[in-house]
């Protein structure tokens, strides 16, 4: 069309009729296209505005006109984030809920409510998201996520509360309990409302590793969490919070126990059915009580390929919680792992379970032997005597003497 129009103008009278016809045709074509586009757009706009309640529309437009910088009134979501619109409590509470901006960055900085209805698949997908843009649109204070995997009560709770006190800005707590278990803690405790949606756990089965991943994923939803520690109800801290925090935040390495054990308790649990993806020389063992940084946490919850091999082929006497993360990290991220745990444990008594310490065993000398253990260890490639930040296993009876000694021996 364009070429025809330009050429024929120069050719003269005999083609003028053809030219007119061409011009008319192209005009008609453009006109018709315009009508079609116009109709389509207006139906979109109609549908869009019809779906918005008029109150939301008018209030957001007036806020835009007054002060653009005042985000508090820029309500863009007219439905309750928690989804329980049906609640018939008082109007003010309802309005407050309705007016909350569900898309605000606050939801990433500190998710307000840990309860959600996501399945593990949905949760892991959601938690695996990484911003592509450098920096943060808020002042980010990196936090340590303390993730407790418990079988119910947390007997050492008062000791942890004492340890956390005054440092709330630098930490988040997550607790995975048996489903239906309700932790009864006071509303000023860092443990208050920190139970994540939990599922049944069987020790030694893949359900245990599922629970570890569920803790990691829930903690990843808070973009300020930078380091992730897995703890049990029998774990205690052995240094004060500032020591633990700076040790973890400033470490170039994550602390996941990962070693090659050439016995039936190590390599003996490897299954050739994992070939060709997992080979015997990849296989590692290690304590489940890990500490990882954000990057590794995202790799762990994002993996399905290798995890599904463990779920299929690592069955008793193979225990995924002792092999999956140590092996997976060894295969892909070994260079950023210190290959040691920061949680002290005593295997010296022999047998399948480590020693449990009760009230009678807690002395200043004992605690100091954990704090300044001469075990060779490196911190950021330098030798150090500070190898352990936490210790297990402690019976409930150890709580009273530990509370007694915490300020003089452990500095909190
Ligand atoms: C925002 O709301 C507050 C009270 O909720 C009101 O005082 C203020 O004028 C409102 N600001 C704008 C820009 O509408
Ligand atoms: C969190 O959400 C759940 C369900 O949506 C609700 O029952 C609970 O009260 C909420 N907690 C807080 C602190 O808002
Ligand atoms: C929760 O703890 C408080 C104070 O310790 C106690 O009074 C209350 O009975 C407990 N509630 C339940 C359900 O255990
Ligand atoms: C924590 O303990 C260290 C010694 O281990 C001490 O130097 C530091 O002052 C303590 N921090 C606080 C806040 O008590
Ligand atoms: C941990 O082990 C890996 C092998 O998986 C090795 O590459 C890495 O250097 C070790 N880390 C340290 C700190 O030695
Ligand atoms: C703890 O103390 C009791 C009683 O003194 C003793 O029998 C036990 O061996 C001690 N446990 C450990 C692990 O040292
Ligand atoms: C270090 O801990 C081990 C137990 O894991 C213990 O046997 C040893 O005595 C401790 N070392 C020191 C110097 O306290
Ligand atoms: C606490 O320590 C004091 C002395 O330091 C001691 O007399 C007391 O028995 C200890 N209490 C417990 C529960 O260990």
TrEMBL record:
Q: Which residues form a coiled coil?
A: none
> Which InterPro entries does this chain map to?
BC10-like, Glyco_trans_14
The listed locations are: Membrane
Mention any one GO cellular component term assigned to this protein in its UniProt record: membrane
> Which keywords does this Swiss-Prot/TrEMBL entry list?
Glycoprotein, Glycosyltransferase, Membrane, Transferase, Transmembrane, Transmembrane helix
Question: How does it sit in the bilayer?
Answer: Single-pass type II membrane protein
Q: Does the keyword Nucleotide-binding apply?
A: no
What does the record give under GO molecular function?
glycosyltransferase activity
Q: Which residues cross the membrane?
A: 21-41
What PANTHER family does UniProt report for this protein, alphabetically? CORE-2/I-BRANCHING BETA-1,6-N-ACETYLGLUCOSAMINYLTRANSFERASE FAMILY PROTEIN-RELATED, OS08G0110400 PROTEIN
Q: What is this protein called?
A: Core-2/I-branching beta-1,6-N-acetylglucosaminyltransferase family protein
Q: Where does this protein come from, organism-wise?
A: Brassica carinata
């Amino acid at each position: 069309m364009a070429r025809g129009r330009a050429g024929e103008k120069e050719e003269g009278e005999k083609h003028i009729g053809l030219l007119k016809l061409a011009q008319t045709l192209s005009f008609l074509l453009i006109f018709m296209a315009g009508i079609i586009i116009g109709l389509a757009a207006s139906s979109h706009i109609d549908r869009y505005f019809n779906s918005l309640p008029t109150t939301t529309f008018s209030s957001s437009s007036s806020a835009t006109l007054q002060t653009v910088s005042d985000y508090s009134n820029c309500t863009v979501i007219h439905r309750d984030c928690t989804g329980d619109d049906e609640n018939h409590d008082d109007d003010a509470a309802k309005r407050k809920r309705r007016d909350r901006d569900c898309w605000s960055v606050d939801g990433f900085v500190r998710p307000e409510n840990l309860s959600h209805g996501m399945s593990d698949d949905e949760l892991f997908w959601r938690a695996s998201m990484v911003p592509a843009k450098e920096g943060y649109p808020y002042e980010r204070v990196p936090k340590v996520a303390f993730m407790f995997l418990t079988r119910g009560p947390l007997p050492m709770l008062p000791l942890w509360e004492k340890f956390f006190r005054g440092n709330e800005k630098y930490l988040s707590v997550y607790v995975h309990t048996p489903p239906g278990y309700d932790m009864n803690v006071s509303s000023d405790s860092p443990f208050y409302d920190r139970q994540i949606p939990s599922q049944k756990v069987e020790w030694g089965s893949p359900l245990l590793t599922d629970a570890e991943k569920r803790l990691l994923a829930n903690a990843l939803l808070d973009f300020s969490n930078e380091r992730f520690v897995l703890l049990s109800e029998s774990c205690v801290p052995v240094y004060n919070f500032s020591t633990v925090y700076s040790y973890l935040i400033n470490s170039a390495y994550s602390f996941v126990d990962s070693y090659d054990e050439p016995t039936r308790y190590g390599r003996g649990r490897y299954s050739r059915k994992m070939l060709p993806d997992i080979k015997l020389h990849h296989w590692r063992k290690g304590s489940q009580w890990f500490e990882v940084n954000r990057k590794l946490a995202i790799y762990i919850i994002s993996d399905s390929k290798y995890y599904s091999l463990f779920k299929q082929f690592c069955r008793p006497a193979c225990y995924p919680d002792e092999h999956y993360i140590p092996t997976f990290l060894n295969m892909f991220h070994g260079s950023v792992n210190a290959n040691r745990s920061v949680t002290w444990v005593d295997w010296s008594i022999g047998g399948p379970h480590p020693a449990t310490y009760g009230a009678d065993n807690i002395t200043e000398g004992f605690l100091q032997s954990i704090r300044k253990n001469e075990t060779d260890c490196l911190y950021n490639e330098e030798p150090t005597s500070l190898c352990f930040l936490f210790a297990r296993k402690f019976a409930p009876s150890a709580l009273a003497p530990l509370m007694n000694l915490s300020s003089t021996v452990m500095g909190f």
